[in-house]
Amino acid sequence: MKLISLLVVFLLSALLVPAFQSDIKQDTIGVRGNCAMCKERIEEACYVPGVKKATWNANNQTLVVIYKPSKVSLQKITQQVAIAGHDSDSLKANELSYKNLPDCCTYRTKSCSK
Amino acid sequence: MRSKSVLIFIGLYLWASCSWAQQDTILRAKTLKGVRVRHKETTTKIESKSIQQVEQISGKELLKAACCNLSESFETTPSIDVSFTDAVSGYKQIQLLGLASTNTLITRENIPDNRGIAAITGLSLTPGTWISSMQLSKGTGSVVNGFESLAGQLNVEWKKPFDNNRFYFNAYQNSQGRSELNAIWAKKVTNKISTNLLAHYKNQWARMEQNKDGFTDQPLGSQIVLSNRWIIFLKRDWEFQVGAKFSKLANWGGQMDYIKNEPQEPRLHWGYLSNLQRQDYWMKIGKVFAATPWKSFGIQMSYVLHDENNSYGLTNYSANQKSNYVNFIYQTKIKTTDQILKLGASWLQDKITEDFYQTFTRNEKVWGVFSEATLIVNKQLSLVAGIRLDHHNNYGFFATPRLHIRYARNEKTTMRFSAGKALRTAAVFAEQKAWMASNRSWVLHNDAQTAANPYGLSPEIAWNIGYNWNRKIEWDYRPGALSFEVYSSVFTNQVVVDVEQFNEVHLYNLSGASYANALQVQVDYELAHHLDLRMAYKFYDVKISYQEGLLQKPFIPSHRVFANLAYQTKRKLKLDATWNWVSAKRVPMNILGETYDSNPFSQVSFQISKEYKKQYEWYVGVENALNYMQPNAIIMPQSPFATGFDAALIWGPLMGRSVYAGVRLQIK
Predict the structure, then answer these.
(1) Which domain holds residue B86?
(2) Most C-beta atoms within 10 A of its C-beta, which of B187, B414, B480, B627?
C-alpha cells in the first residue's frame, strides 16, 4: 500500500506542476509537406527538450508549436524541421535530406496529389 | 397459443423483409484498407463515438504482452484478469467484471468462438500473432451476436489476407523451455480475391519444477494450429469469405516421475494427459447497396467439431462437441440514416457428449429472431435498443432485451449506460475441469434430470447493468483520459460450483442471491513525449449463495492495482514495464481444515523491443520479475491418490521468473 500511495503522490505532483508555469510560448510557422507521413515526420522532429506540443496541419501548411523559450528557441525547432527534410518559412531543407523523403512526401514537385 | 402465433408472424415478417443481413467485419475491414495507421495512436483506447463501451486493443498492444495466445494477451489490459486454472494443466483463464470467461462472448470476427466445452481450452487455440486487433465491450453486448454475453463481448479480428504484408514470421523462446513458431502467408490472387495461410506451432520441451512440490509446473507437449481463409470481393458490392481452422494439442505432465502414457492404475505415479482436436469452418456472405449504403445484408455460418480426452490421475474426462450456427442480419434505415434498424434470425445447435464417470449427452437447438434499433437523437444522445426472442428445445421461448445509451456531454466527456439480460447453458464439467486435478468427489444435484437434460441443471440467467464515464483530458499540453465504471451482474439462476467441503465438488442450481459488482477507475496520461502511463484500480464484490450461506466467491480478489509505463526513444527502441498488485483472495478449506485468505502479491514484467525499417523486430523481456510463486500450490503433493490431494486451490502465479526473446519479420 505504501508503494501505491507513493505512486499517487508522484502522479498528483506531476499534474500540479504545470499550474505554476508561465514560461510557455506558442508560435505558428509555415511548413511544407504532403501527407500523413509528413505530419508524423514534422511533428516528431519538433520534439526536442523544451517542446510541449507540435501540431502540423496539412490543409493550411502550418505548424503550431508550444514550447518553453527558456529551454529551446523557435530557430532550433525550425532547424529540426529542416533536418527532417521539410521547408519552412524561414529555412529551406537541404537537398540531401529532401532526397531522403519517400516518393509520396516530395512536396516540392507535388508528385503526390494529397 | 397467441404468443406463439405472434412469434411465428414476427419470424415470417423478418424472413420476408430481410433478404439477409450485414456483416460488420468484412465491411469494416474493407473500409480500413486505405487507411494508414498512424503511430501516434494510442495502443488501447475507448472508442468515444461508439454507443457501447468498446475498448480497442490494437495489435501494438498485443506486442507488449510476452506471449503467445489469447489467454496470455491481456497482460497490459487492466480490464481483464488472468489466472491459472490449476497446478497441472497449465491453462490460464480470463475474467471480466469478476465473472469467468464463459460469461463473456468471445467472437472471431463476430462469429461466436470458444463456446461449450472449449470454455477453458479454446483460448489457447487462438495464437496471439494471428490477431490484428480486439474489441472488448463490457456489459451485455448486442443482440445481433446472440443471447449469451453477460459480462461482455471480446471480438478478435485476425490479420487480413488483403493487408499489405505478404509474409509474417515470428519465433519465440523462453527460459522455461517453451518454443513457438508462427507464420502467416498472404496472397492477393487478383485484385478481388485474396487468401492467407496461418500457422502456429508451440512446444514445451523442458520439464520445469520450480516450486519443489514434485509436480511438473507446465505440462510438456506440443500444439499445432493451422488456418486458411479466402476473402473475395465480387461485383456489385458482394463480399464472400470462407475459412477453416485446425487445432491439435497433446500435453502431458503430473508428477516428475511420471512417464508419458504410463498406466495410472498401479498408482505408482500421478500423471496428467490431454489430447485435443478441433476443427472450425466458417463462411460469410455480405452485400452493401452502393446507392443506399445504409442498406446491407449478411449471413454468417460456422461449424465446429471439438474432441478431447483428458486424464488427471485416475480421473478420466472426455468430451465431444458438434456445433453449427447461422446468423442472418439485414440492416436498413427507419426514416433517416440516424435511425438504423437491424433485423435478423439465427440458428444454433450444440451437440455435446461428456464422459465423466457416466455419459452425458445434450443436444440443444435454438432458433431466434432479433431486432435492434440504433437511434442518434442528437449530437449528444444516442442509443441502441435491441430485443431477441429465442426458442430453445429444452427451455422453451425466452426474450432477451438489451439497451445501450450514450450521452456525450461535450466533446470531452462521454457517459454510457447499459442494461440487459443474458441466458446460457453452463458446460459444467468442461468449465470446472480444474477440480479434476484433485481427489474430490463430484456431487451433481440433478433433481430436474430428464433425458434431454441429463445434468438436471437450469440455464444460467442474469441481468447486467453498467455505467461508465470517460473524459479526455489535456494537462500541460499532453493528452490523457480518465475513466470510471461500475457494473453489476445479478443472477436469477446460476449453476453454483460449491467447493467449500475439502473433498467434494457440488454442482447445483442457485437458491438465493448471487451477484458480481465491479468498479474500475483508470487514468491514462502522456507523462512526456512518448512516455505513456496507464494506472488502474479495480474493486470486486462477488458473492454467491452456497449451501453454507452467502459467501465471497473463492479466488476473486477484492482489489487490484495496475500500472503500465511505455516509452519509445527517438530511435524507436520501445521499453515497457507493467506492475500488477492483487489483493488477498478467499481460499476454500483444504484437508487440514485451513480456511484462509491468500497473500496479496505483485507481479512485474518488462519488455524491450526494437524495430528496423518496419521489417525486422526483436524483443526481449522478463515475466514475473519478482519471481513470486504461490507457496504450497498443491495440497498433499506426496500422496496424490489419497483423500485430500488438491491441485486446484490456485490463487497465485505457478511459474517463476521467465526470460524470453523473440523475433518478428514482416515482408510487404
Answers:
(1) 2-568
(2) B414
Domains delineated in chain A: 22-105 (3.30.70.100)
The answer to whether the Cβ–Cβ distance between B476 and A40 falls below 8 Å is no
Residue B273 sits at φ, ψ, to 5 deg, of -135, 140
Interface probe, candidates A15, A38, A83, chain B, greatest B C-beta count within 10 A? A15
- Confirm if B556 and B585 have CB atoms less than 8 A apart: yes
pLDDT band at A95 (very low <50, low <70, confident <90, very high): confident
The single-letter code of the amino acid at B626 is L
pLDDT in tens, B465-483: 999 999 999 988 899 999 9
The span from the CA of B469 to the CA of B247, in Å, is 40
Residue B616 counted as domain residue: no
B254 is a domain residue: yes
Measure the CA–CA gap between B628 and B624, rounded to whole angstroms. Answer: 7
The answer to the question of residue B596 being in a domain is: no
Question: Rounded CA gap, B333 and B311, in Å?
Answer: 54
- Which CATH number belongs to the domain containing residue B502 in this structure? 2.40.170.20
Give the Cα-Cα-Cα angle B28, B381, B525 (nearest 5 degrees).
70
Q: A12: pLDDT confidence band, cut at 50, 70 and 90?
A: low
The answer for residues whose C-beta is within 8 angstroms of residue B333's C-beta and 6 or more apart is B294, B295, B339, B340, B341
Give the count of domains, chain B. Answer: 1
Q: Which residue of A has its CA nearest to B561?
A: A4
How crowded is the C-beta side of B612, counted as CA atoms within 13 Å?
7
Confirm whether the ipTM is greater than 0.85: no
Grid coordinates representing B275 are: 489430447
B296-327 in b/e burial notation, b at 16+ Cβ within 10 A? bbbbbbbbbebbbebbbbebebbbbbbbebbb
Q: Which one of B38, B475, B529 has the shortest CB-CB distance to A18?
A: B475
B661 within a domain of the structure (yes/no): no
